[in-house]
């Protein structure tokens, strides 16, 4: 219903269809342009809920303004983007600048502090490594502990959010503090990161891991962009006589 509606949504360069909605499990994200009305969206959702028997959790609905500071301020103060539009109900929360909202594991919003989503992960990692430390683990146990709790805990958020340089340093400092039990290091960090057969302990290099994640993302984006350009070029150059009747409705 949303994709077939008159809602304008977002127009993304290189993508033929408008961006209006994304769905994942029970999470729904709807994208409205400045010309769209929240009241029109509510009518569509109410109709869908009546027909399907489903129900949207209104108290958990969050609106994240996107655009200029003036536009975001107007939406916050007047609770509408157009003069003749009905105000957005008070039951629907509008996120302010600096307020983060979680979407599929990533934290989104305007003017966010990049360190905020990492503070809780850093605190949890410090606490669990402190408990492991009380067990007096062997060198192998310490290596596994670092891989399991420091590297694995930060892996997903790094993929979704990116890790700030300040947090890279904090995680690396935490690794070596745990490995040497807070005492003076006897072997330098670079040596400990070497493979076991080269005299190291094969400790996770957080910065190198993060760089690898960035490269994977870059390759994925490049592949998606290339495929999108091929599809767009094929649609533009395809002879009309060869187009099947239902192709245009699918694109």
Strand order within the widest sheet? 1-2
Number of strands: 6
Report the major sheet: 2 strands, antiparallel
Q: What is the overall pLDDT average?
A: 82
Radius of gyration: 25 Å
The share of residues in extended strands comes to: 5-15%
Query: What would you call the shape?
Result: elongated
Helix content: 40-55%
Alpha-beta content class:
mainly alpha
Can you characterise this structure?
With 251 residues, this protein is mostly helical. It is built from eight helices and six strands. It has helices at 38-52, 69-78, 116-133, 139-161, 165-179, 189-192, 206-237, 247-250, and strands at residues 21-24, 27-30, 62-63, 93-94, 101-103, 106-108. The strands form three sheets. The chain has a two-stranded antiparallel sheet with strand order 1-2. Strands 3-4 form a two-stranded parallel sheet. It has a two-stranded antiparallel ribbon with strand order 5-6. Helix 3 (116-133) packs antiparallel against helix 4, helix 3 (116-133) runs parallel beside helix 5 (165-179) and helix 4 (139-161) packs parallel to helix 7. The longest helix is centred in the last third of the chain and has 32 residues, at 206-237. The protein is elongated, with a radius of gyration of 25 Å.
Describe this protein with a few key phrases.
single chain; 251 residues; two-stranded parallel ribbon; elongated; disordered C terminus
Q: Summed up, what is this model?
A:
The chain is mainly alpha-helical.
């Amino acid at each position: 219903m949303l994709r077939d509606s008159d809602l304008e949504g977002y127009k993304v360069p290189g993508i033929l269809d408008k961006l209006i909605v994304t769905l994942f499990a029970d999470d729904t994200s709807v994208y409205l342009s400045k010309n769209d009305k929240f009241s029109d969206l509510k009518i569509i959702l109410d109709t869908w809920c009546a027909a399907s028997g489903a129900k949207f959790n209104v108290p958990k609905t969050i609106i994240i303004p996107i655009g200029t500071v003036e536009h975001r301020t107007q939406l916050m103060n007047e609770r509408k983007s157009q003069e003749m539009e009905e105000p957005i109900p008070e039951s629907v929360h509008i996120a302010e600048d600096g307020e983060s909202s979680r979407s599929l594991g990533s934290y989104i919003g305007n003017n966010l502090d990049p360190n905020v989503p990492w503070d809780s992960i850093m605190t949890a990692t410090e606490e669990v490594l402190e408990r492991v430390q009380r067990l007096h683990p062997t060198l192998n146990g310490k290596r596994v502990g670092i891989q399991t709790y420091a590297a694995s805990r930060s892996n997903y958020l790094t993929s979704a959010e990116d890790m700030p340089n300040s947090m890279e340093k904090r995680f690396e400092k935490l690794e070596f503090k745990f490995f040497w039990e807070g005492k003076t290091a006897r072997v330098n960090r670079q040596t400990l990161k070497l493979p076991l057969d080269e005299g190291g302990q094969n400790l996770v290099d957080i910065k190198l891991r993060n760089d690898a994640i960035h490269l994977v993302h870059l390759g994925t984006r490049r592949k998606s962009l290339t495929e999108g350009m091929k599809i767009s070029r094929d649609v533009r150059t395809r002879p009309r006589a060869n187009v099947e009747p239902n192709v245009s409705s699918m694109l």
